[in-house]
Structures are given as structure tokens and as C-alpha cells.
Amino acid sequence: LARNLDHLASLPAETADGHRVRLWVNTGLMADVVRSLERGAEGVGLYRTEVPFLLRDRFPSEEEQREIYREQLQAFAPRPVTMRTLDIGGDKALAYFPIEETNPFLGWRGIRVTLDHPEIFLAQVRAMMKASLGLDNLRIMLPMISGLGELETARKLLERAHGELVEEGYDIAMPPLGIMIEVPSAVYQARELAAHADFISVGSNDLTQYLLAVDRNNSRVASIYHALHPAVLRALQEVVDAGHAANTKVGICGELAGDPGGALLLVAMGYDVLSMNATNLPRVKAALRAVRKADTEKLLQQIMGMHCPEQIEETLRAYMKRIG
Ligand code: PEP
Ligand code: MG
């Protein structure tokens, strides 16, 4: 699979028997954009807006944000770009907005910060919507959602911002609003959340950390951070089933989507969108094109019957070796 990946950019992302999957990219910097387009990305599944915030020494103004977001949206248009609202806290600290906590991953993170500071949220979504003027490819996504109330509050703020822009004379449609599923409580409410969201996308990095209670950045426990842990796989399957039961498209934008073996399992589960670093896209596409959907389903069924993460990893490794 590692050979001749360049020609893949123009070939469709589909299995050997024609099952199409959307392979999108995760971005943050403009450099990611250039690389992504070269590799034939069909959209952005996660634009991490905290990246430009981390590179500055103060909050960027609404106008500065508009310019940054416009560049991303314009470069990908007409392809969809999923912009995530600010996801700070946890391991991502802004020097000009210090958060001191003993347990930051269980603390003031993601949507919790921006709902407590609606002025940050409003400036951000106003800038995104203004940036999308005439392009119509913006989707907005909320990080660290743990219950329906957060989604409802955020939607009200978004509607307020949209209404104000329309009053100011901007001719902009309401963008689709989606959420990340990365907190275990969201897995158990996935059906209701999906019914109230325009799309859902699993953040498997955080979801794995929270399901297994293993800090994703702590090297001492790295050997028990298993992206393919049976409990994680079960949660991933439940989320996609819940989303589809609510007629909502389901994506994933954690690292697992960029691992060719992991990607095949996600396709078998029924994921509609896999979003990954551009670097991994050609390898994932090559793996996808090398298999039939029914084969991935057989593999998934076999793996779902296993209880030991190491056995799952070994089975997947052997399978990937077999398909070349
Ligand atoms: C995730 O948690 O899987 C995710 C995509 O978000 P981040 O890695 O930015 O926390
Ligand atoms: Mg996350």
C-alpha cells in the first residue's frame, strides 16, 4: 500500500465493491490546507480553531478571526469545512488566558469555557459566518459536549449571532451545527443528541481517554491507552447506530480514523465520514480501495468477539499485512 500513493489523489474513496466513504482532513494551519488539497481531500472534518489562538499573544479580534477563517473556507470551497469552536483547557492552554486546575481534563474545557464566556463564543461564530459569505461551505462543531443542555444553549447563541448578522445586512444562511462525541455521557445520549444536531463526529482521542480513564498524554500509562480496546469499539458502534437511527450523518475525527486498519473497522461499523491528518489520507484511501465492504464486516465481527486489546491489535495487523 505504501507504493505509488500519489496517483490516488484523483481516485474515488471507495471500497473495491463501490461503497463510498467521505475521507476528510483535520486542519489548523494553512500549511495543512495545501497538503490536504494535493492529496485529494473532499472536505475538512475538523478545523481546530484553537491553533491560530495558540499562536498569538492575545485573543484575536472578530475581524482577525474572520480573515483567518475566510482563508480556510475559501481554499476548500465548495468542499465543506467543519470549524470547531474554541477547544481550550485540558492540555491546551492560552498564555493570555491561564486556567489553573489540579485536574484539567475533567475541568474547564471546550464548550464549558465558551458557554461561560458567551462573548468569546459569539465573536467566534460571528467571524465564521461572516467569513462564509458567498461560499456556503461552513459547518460549525462544538467540542466536549456532555449533555443536551449545552447543545441547546449553544444553538440559541448561534441563532442570536445569525439573527444579528442578518439585521446588519449579511445575506448568510444558518450553518449546520454539529457536536463532537468525546465524553462517555454523550455516548449514552447519542440518539437524543443526534436528533438535535445536524451531524455528529466522534473525537476518539478524548473518548478513549475518558472511557479507559487513561490520560492521553501521560507516557507512564501509554501502554494501556488502547484505541482498539473492546469497550471503545463497542462505544464507537453504538454511536454510529444511534446517529443513523436519528437519521443523522456520523463522522469520526480522532487519530483512529487515520490508521488504515482502524479506518476499515470504522467503515464496517457504518461511519459516513472519516477525518484525519492529510499525511494519513493516501494510506487510508489505498486500504479502503483494496477491500470489499463485506470483508471488513467479517473482520469487524471477528474482532468484536475478542476481549483482549492486544489480540485485537495483532489480528488487525495480520489482516493489514495480508491485504498488502
Ligand atoms: C479528539 O478528541 O479525538 C479530537 C479530535 O479532538 P482533539 O484531539 O483536538 O482533542
Ligand atoms: Mg478532543
TrEMBL record:
It is found in: Cytoplasm. Belongs to the PEP-utilizing enzyme family. This is phosphoenolpyruvate--protein phosphotransferase. The chain holds residues 420 to 743 of 754 of the full protein.
